[in-house]
Amino acid sequence: MQAHPQDVRPDEPGPVGFIQRLSRELAAGEIRLPSFPDIALRVQQVLEDTRAPRTQVAQVIGADAALAARILRLANSAFFRPSSHQITDLQQALTRLGNQLVRCTAVSFSLQQMTLGSGEAQRPMLQKLWRQGALVASIAYVIARDTKAAIPDEALMTGLMHNIGRLYLSVSQTRLSTEEFDGKVWVKLVEDWHPRIAGAILKHWKFPPAIVAAVANQNDWHRDCGADDVLTDVLVAGVALQFCVFDRDLLEPAVSEVPAFKRLRLSALDCQRLLAATAEQIKTLQAALAQ
Asked: Of 140, 167, 189, 243, which is least surrounded by CB within 10 A?
């Protein structure tokens, strides 16, 4: 049975109370990401200005060579290149990807740079979270594209951001003393709370409401679904299928246990075909997002 974060007492000591304090900080707009590059904030600011010409956006992004290279690599990936023509101009790449995906790429790039600048003890876990996010994003994209259940670009951004709560909690864990820390309790708390934490962060960063809702509700498999809730189902299905990429024997139990697949009208056989047909595309897109 899924835990309800609101049932946790705010005065409780140790990791439980820490999560509560963290939640209140996020609700107040206090987001503490050490070493978070400000390039993402600059990109967001210029994209929020509807009068900003494409040349100005390209100038802001071009100031960071590594981010510019990421944008170009993504625009030239198999998912976004309708022909063999390679884009070498940043403005053309921005036009192909669109503002939302460019902003998401800037945020995700900055998060990845943050993990690379983290301590040696945390780095392997944060890099693992990043690779998982890129894989889920790739799978969510092909689910949305092939089922036409959601906008593929939104599904991609949702998958890429779905682990931001885990990443934030992992970084924030250093604020807990060793005396307070209980490994098993912490793992359970992260599992229960990371969607809510992620939703608060993405809301603060002004991500589209549908993406915020999907990320925040990713653990709530048995929620009452409306017509506007399909992006959550796409994300939930993408999260479930990430393990099936490496072990197809997990497909049948995953599809039977997760109601989202039924709502998306995806059987285990459908998922088998989808993963097989798009394996190379998923690999290519994951590489473009995670490198």
From this structure: 243
- What does the pLDDT look like over 51-107, one tens digit per residue? 888 899 999 999 888 889 889 888 887 767 666 678 888 998 888 888 878 887 887
Per-domain residue ranges of the chain: 35-117, 121-291
Amino acid at the residue 143: I
Tokens, residue 153: 């670009």
Task: Report the distance separating Cα 228 and Cα 74, nearest Å.
Answer: 28
Packing angle of the helix pair 123-147, 268-277 (nearest 10 deg): 110
For residue 95, count other CB atoms closer than 10 A to its CB: 15
> pTM for this one?
0.78
Q: Determine if residue 29 is left, alpha or beta; phi over 0 gives left, psi from -120 to 50 gives alpha, anything else beta.
A: left
Buried b / exposed e along 111-140 (16+ C-beta atoms within 10 A): bbbbbeebeeeeeeebeebbbbbbbbbbbb
Residue entry with tokens 């999907």 = 214
